[in-house]
Sequence to fold (252 residues):
Amino acid sequence: MNAVIQLDEVQKTYHTGEVDVHAVRGVSLRIQPGEFVAIMGASGSGKSTLMNIIGCLDRTTAGCYKLDGVDVSRLNRDQLAEIRNQKIGFIFQGFNLLARTAAVENVELPMLYRQKNISSRERRNSALKSLEIVGLAQRAGHFPSQLSGGQQQRVAIARALVNQPALLLADEPTGNLDTQTSIEIMGVFQKLNEQGITIMMVTHELDIAHYTKRTVVLRDGLIVSDTPVANRLNAEVELSRLKSEQKAVQLD
Fold:
């Protein structure tokens, strides 16, 4: 079985005037199907550049990158766009929903850019199924302004799932959310991962990384550690504990 992500001695150098900036300095990494991996690192560590490479938003300067067995370095711009649409589901810190469009229609958007034509009924059914997976089917007709931050992020996750990608790529997905909502969203990710979905999440929050199964830490464009998560948190248990603490405070 192919690794979903296979990086071999990947480098990325930016040329700015007379100075070369080595953002990624020879990273080799394998992420297998069904893994849930957190990518961490301080500002300037190279994690954003690495995410852009993995997301086919930027090209390597050297080295090889294969996404679900496809050598993306050999693809042209149109082929890269197709790969992004079919192989990767993107989830960002900002929900990036169309304000005047209902939740179900926001989820349908990635299907509009597929090369294979899909009927409007098929699009609607697939979008409703994705919303059901994230527990938001009952809000399908609501606009973003009628949804909470956590619900909007669930819509964004459903949108990322709708084309059944090989990889969910999440960039600081809880950055705009409060603690309780963050735990709820990590619970959604954990349930998706239990269903076999491969997830790579970029985060700077160690407590959020503890909900994943593996942590890769970057420094100065290099991987300095790649370890299984010890003392992994369970979102359902943590959410129950948090609610109990809040109830106790209210009673006091």
Summary: The chain has one domain: 5-251. The first helix runs from residue 47 to 54. Strands lie at 5-16, 19-31, 36-40, 62-67, 70-71, 88-91, 167-171, 199-202, 214-219, 222-228.
